[in-house]
Model the fold of this input.
Amino acid sequence: MDIIDPLRPKTVPLSAETILWFEFLLDPELLTSHLKKTTPNPQPLELIEKFLTIFPDVPTEACSTTPPDGDKESTKSIEEILGRKQVALKILTLKVASFLKWNLDVIENLNLQKQIQLLDDLCTITSGTLVSLPLTNDEVKIGPQGSRGAFEFALLIYHRWTLRVYKIFKEALLKNKATFGLNPPATSTDPISLRDEMFATAMDPIPQDSINYLLNICQNPEAIAVLTYDSLIPLNSTSEYTSQNFRFIKFISKCEIKTQIHFDLCKFFLYINSNALARQHAIECRDNLRILKTEYESRGEKPEDFLLCNVPESELEGCLLACGVSDVKHGLLQRMNEEIVHQRYMSILEILERDNLEMEIPFVHRKILELDIEEALKVGQVNVTKDIEASILALNTIRCLVDEENCYQTTDFMQKYNYSVENLKVFLECTAKILGSGCSQRSRERIGQYYRSLLMKMDIVSEVRALNLLPEDELTSIEKMKMSSQYPFPQISIQTDWKMCDLNHHRLEVGNLKRQLINSNASDVKKLCKKLAPIKDYDDRRRPREPRELWEVNPSWSIPIPLQSVLKSLQRGFLKDFAYITLGKAKELTNRKDYGSAIALLNTLKTETQRSDLANTSTVAKMGKLISWEILLVQICQCLNDWPRKHPESAAIGLKCKQCILSLQNGDTAIPRTEILEYSIAMLLNLSDWASLILPEKRSPTLELSSALAGAAMDIEKGKPSRICREAWEIVLPMFSATPGNKRNMSRDSPTLAVNNFSSFFNKLREPFIVSIIMSLLARILNIIKDDTNVEISCDYMFLWPTSIANTGAYNMRTISETLSHLLDQNLKFYPQNISWIKLKADLDYLNGNNEAAMKGYVNALISGTEYCTLHLQKPLIDDAMVRRMIKCSTNLGCHMQATVLCQFLDEIDYSLAFKCISEKSATFTDAIDTYYSCIWDVTILEFIINLHAKKNEHTRKLQVISYMSQLELNANNNEEIKREAANNRKMKFLRALAKQYMLQEM
Done:
């Protein structure tokens, strides 16, 4: 007797609502109640997949033998051949598909093999005989259990599905071709797994049999039967044979089936770029859909009640737009763009006149049109005249007048044409049209205001009176004023010498001094502060309050918080005001990169703190020390801004940076700010002063990181390449952790050193050696996380870092990639000829899938490394890994002939890959095929091209290639030096062609 362990976990009982698949087989009525649920579980599509998975779609072993008598074979029922259980499952599958109204959009979510199996079952059950797909031209015989009408419906579904699946085969074929020979993955699975390879051949060429069949149905006047849910009778325990009740088949109107067929054909022809046929079927589908809706509405039904038709109106509208026959009313912006694209400009004035009322087109588009017309006139474009330019400018001026929400400014029409009477007629005509079109009263007022100003400059009273825009009395008064020889302007309006009144007033005097203070230089600031320091400034004498501080006159004056705390402890007076204003102005000048003026201001303030009467004060002494650190910050910023030009006082600045770090280590009372400390550390790294950063006690996280980097640099200089630098690795790696809890505490001011702080510190570095070490660290992390040798990036000093990470999934790869890319962009500005960095940037773009950017980077590296194509290509500038990546990028960009030429750059030419690239047809216009024949020096490749042209009967192109191959330097009997020189010349010619395409494409 077995002893039951009470601690053994027991099986979880199934829910009462759970239905197993065999329950549908035992009780077919259960399927109907299940499908009618609001949210059935499992879903209908899951049921179909489950039913098709239970039994393979092959005859059972018991029925696989063929009887000797052929007549007896034809009289066998489907149940005797396949088995009753399998036939029952097929019928249940078809019932679920009929519940979905045979919607191929839904059925296509199944695996392709399951779709084929479902259509095979449909043809078998409806014909009463075994049917194997794909169907041949031979007619299928209908068995005693089948129905001709039901089988015709199965053929309709099959041929519609054939058009849809054609796209899947073609896309899979293109995908397989794209990956041919280009470093295929070690384990790759075919995205299409077919039960029968005959399907692959049936889809290529175009399935014309299916197209003809569907077109014949549209022309056949007979009605079409639809297999409904009730017409499929499932097997039960008492029935021996399938007895489908085909009397429940419903016949649909010819209009419905034509709507669906024309829609399928339209999508198919759009895919194969047969636009004329697609347009024809799109129009037929649209017309039949309108008739179909009318038929159903007459019976009180809606489009949701369609028995078979499933044509989304939004998708049909997209097809109509693609064919250029859409009924959608185009907006004014689209109509204007069409006029611009076709350069007709026939209806452009009408569009702009209407837009002045509706204000639909954004004004920026109208302004661009105005500038385009002006440029077209300058180059002498035929279909652009001076009248069109004047009319467009006049209409744009009116649009600015009537549109109150317009934030753009257009050129004033009359001002541009210098208020000439000849062009006034155009503006008056445009004004009359908008006034006669029923514009709003507010628009009339705004236009009238413009004409008031225009009347003061031109004698156009009679023209404005004809517009009926301004009151008659106003026009009369203006006319009288124009007729008088002199208009008596007030004296104040014609005064030109405006002088300020007496400055003895206290508030005016203070305001004048403050105005001077904002724009004064270093020497004047001190004088103005001495004048303003004893003056108390109130906003209102009648409502006195605490006097405002002097530095509040300019809100842009701001100083760091450590300096603010020191200044607040000073008494109100000259020194406090002078210090705050000087520090604020110095920071403002530093941001404007006026470093000389900023240093002069700070030196003036430092001199003031060293006065004998103030030097003994502890607060003033501390402030003087802090000002010295601020001067150092400005000097470092100036050095970094002038880099790589060496600063004349770089040695003295480096000594001050050491003192800055030592003040932090010694715990002085006036320690530098975090920003100044980071700049000082970065400056020492830029000056290659590694020893000054190797300290026993590191009180700053930035100092800890820089000390680790300096140690790695010293190890390389001392010739210790085998030592792994784990200090910097363990500091930088946690910064990119996706889990916030794993990030290391690296900042005194914040709990974690964020990635932006990381980038901010390294953006201050300029020395190529230390920058290369940082880039190698990020590249190593990226390679380990990506873990793909095909896209692995390489650079100098990769040996410094570990080769594994414990949990690669816990790090943000995108952040690492963006940080490395930012560092590369930042430092390539200072060293644009650093080939190692250029190749690293190209490898990073290749890893991210930016083929064009990667190709541009590789070409840039080759151009720079060959001194602009004056030196021959040699290792290590180019290697096989780089060439294969260039081939991959060229193939992805559709430049197959470029990839063919690049195959010759390999140490051993990959002929299979080269021949594959030659055979490809480019889908873009970037691959000038014939032009690159002169860059090929391998005779085998040239012979293959000649043979290919001969097969295509391209005689002229074949002779062209023969002329290249017959050149003397490509003779096989030449010595190696001549062959090498011929190859090098063609390499340089090809490299210059790539440079023109990828590096000069924006010029």
